[in-house]
Amino acid sequence: xxxxxxGWQGWVSSSLTxxxxxxxxxxxxxxxxxxxxxxxxxxxxxxx
Length: 48
Hints:
Layout: H1 8-23, E1 29-35, E2 38-44
Antiparallel strand pairs: 1-2
């Protein structure tokens, strides 16, 4: 389940957009963010 992370939305809208252009042709987009609670790693898949 997703949980709100301070500053997460702004990080995605800025960094994820840049990653999509260069990695869209790969298996997926891997994003990693650091927060006081630890590290969260997310992999986004586009298409099928």
